[in-house]
Amino acid sequence: MLAQEEEKAVSEAKPIVNDFTFQAATINGSGSQSSNLVLTRALFSMGIPVAPKNVFPSNIEGLPTWFNIRVSPQGYQCVNAEVNVLVALNPTTWQRDIHGVNAGAAVIHEESYPVVGNMKRDDVHYYAVPFHKLGQEHIDNPDLRKYLTNMIYVGAVAWLLDIPLTQIEDALKQQFSTKPKAVALNMKSVQVGLDYCKDNHKKTDAYKVAPMTGKVEGKMLIEGNESLALGALMGGCTIAAWYPITPSSSVCEYLDKYADRFRKDEKTGERKIAILQAEDELAAIGMVMGAGWAGARAMTATSGPGISLMAEFSGLGYYAEVPAVICDIQRIGPSTGLPTRTSQGDIESAHLLSHGDTKHVLLIPGTVNECYEFGQLAFDLAERLQTVIFVMSDLDLGMNLWMSEPFKYPDKKFDRGKVLHAKDLERVGEWARYRDVDDDGIPWRTVPGTNHPNAGYFTRGSGHDEYASYTELPEVYERVMDRLKKKYRTARKYMPPAIVEDKGNSVGIIAYGTSHHAMVEARERLVQHGLRTDYCRVRSIPFPQDVLRFIARHERVYVVDQNRDGQMYDLLRLTMNAAQDSMVSVRHYDGTPIPARSIVAPILIDQGLASPAEFERPRQVYALPVEGANT
C-alpha cells in the first residue's frame, strides 16, 4: 500500500523542466571531460541554455574532479551552489557528494557504492548502475575501457533527463570531429547505459529536459582563452613568448592552432607569426619586451606566479615605454595557492607591478566576446600609450565554455600610435624620444630599421632625460615621472567605457570580470526582496569618468570582488577618496566561481532586509578526502 502511494505521489509531481544543476563527480584523468562536454553540447543543441563549470584538482590523474552544468530557462551563466542531478563515480567522495545534493535530487551511482546509514537519504532518488560491470561486459578493449565507461553514464543521464539520442550522437561527432571512427564506439557505450536504465529502473524524480527556442539560436560555445587567442591573432600579434602555467597555457596553444589556419603564406606555407615556448616566465617577458621595442606586436600569457616573475621587466616596459601585452588568467594565490581554482586576486598587483612608482593599464573582460575584443584592443593601446597592457581574465572565464554570439571580424585598421618614419624625421628635423610635444604625456618613437640618421636612440631602464641620454639629475627624474603620470591620466580617454545601468536608484553595485554573470541573477533576486539597484561593470583601469560619476551619484555602493581583501574596492576608494564612506565591500574568495547568493546575502543583510541566519545553509563542498578519514 505504501509503495503504491509513493508511486502515485511521484506520478502527480510536477516535472521540473530545464531548471536544475547537473554534477558529475569523477576521478581526474579518467576521461570524464569528454563525456561531460558531450552532455553539454547535446543540451545546447536542444536550444537549452547551459553554464558548464569544471572544478578539477591540480594533479594530472587520480584525485577527485567535479563537472557542473547549470541549466536554466533564464539562461543564467553563473553557478547556483545546488546539485539536483548527480552522477557519482568516485568512491572517495561518495559520502560528501550524496550529502551535497538538494532534497529531491536524482542520484545515478555505481551499484557497488553503499546506500546505508548516513549515505541513505529519504529525500533523494537513487538509480544504481553497475558501471564497472557493464564496462567489463561490453567494452572489449581494456585500454579504452576506462574512457568508454564514462560514456555509459552519458546514456544513463540521457535516459533520466529524456535527452534524444540523436542529440547525443551529434554532440559526439562534434567532440570527436578529428576522430570520426570514435563516434560509433562511444555511441555503443551510450546505448549500453540507456538500455540498462530503461530495463532496470523506473524514473521517480522530477527533473527532465525539453527543447527550447529563443535563447541559444545563433550562439556558440567557446572558452575565454580560445577567444583571447583569436582576438590576439586579429589584433596583429606577430610574437608570442610563453611558459606553460595553469590556467593560461591554452591561450598560446590556441594561438598556435589558429596560426596554422590564418597566419601561413598560401604559396610558401611559411608562418607569419613566431610562437616561442621559453624556459621560464622571466625569459618569456624578456623576449616580449625585445620584440615590442623592435616594433612587433608581442604578447605573453601567464598567471599569478608568472606575473611575480615578470615584475622587473614590467617596470622596464613602463619606464622605458615599450609596448607589450600580458594576458593574466588569474588563479588562487598566494604562492602556488590553488592552481586550478579561480580568483580575481591579481588586480592590485598587476596594476602596480614592479618596484618604484608604476601604474599599469588593465583591461578586464567579463565575457568571451570581450576576451576577443580586448585581445585586439590591447595591442592598439600598447602602441598608442607605449606601455605594458594587462588583460585580466580568470580561470572561470578562460577555461570554461560560455555561450556567445559569433565574433565580428575587425573593421578598423591597427592603431600604431605615435611613430616617426624617415619622411617624418626629415620634416621635423630634431626630435627627442621622451619629449612630450603634444601635452598628453605620450612621446613620439621610432622603430629599429628606420632609414634615417636621426632615428636611433638608447632605450634606458636607468635614469634618462627627454633625449634618452643617461642622467641622475633629481629634477630630470622628477620631470620624467610626472610625464608618465600625465600619460596614465591620458590613458583614461582610451579605455573601454564601463557598462552602466542607472535608473536613479539609491543603491548601486559595481562588479567586474566574471562576477557579472552572478550579478545578472543577483539583481533579479534583490528585486524579489524589494530592493532595486543600479549597476556598473568596470572594464578597465584607469577608471573612466563614468565609473567615478556612478559612485558619486549613489547613497550606497557595493563593490563585488572575487578576492579576500576587496582589491577593486581599495582601488576605487583611493580614486574616490571623498566618497569612500558610501562604499561597501562584497567578497567571494573560496576559489569556486561566484554564485548570486554571495552577492545577495551581504547586501540584504547590510540593508536590514535579511538576517545572517536566513543564509545559513550547507554549501557545495569541493575538497579532497582527508587521509585516514572514515568515508
Word description of this protein:
By secondary structure, the chain is an alpha/beta fold. The protein is 38% helix and 17% strand. The protein contains 21 helices and 22 strands. A 7-stranded mixed sheet has the order 11-10-12-13-15-14-20, sandwiched between helices. It starts with a helix and ends in a 25-residue tail after the last helix.
Task: Give a brief outline of the structure.
By secondary structure, the protein is of the alpha/beta class. Helix content is 38%, strand content 17%. Residues 1-11 and 626-631 have low confidence and may be disordered.
Describe the strand arrangement of the main beta sheet, using strand numbers. Answer: 11-10-12-13-15-14-20
Rg (CA only): 27 Å
Strand content: 15-25%
**Distance between termini?**
36 Å
Helix content: 25-40%
Tally the helices. 21
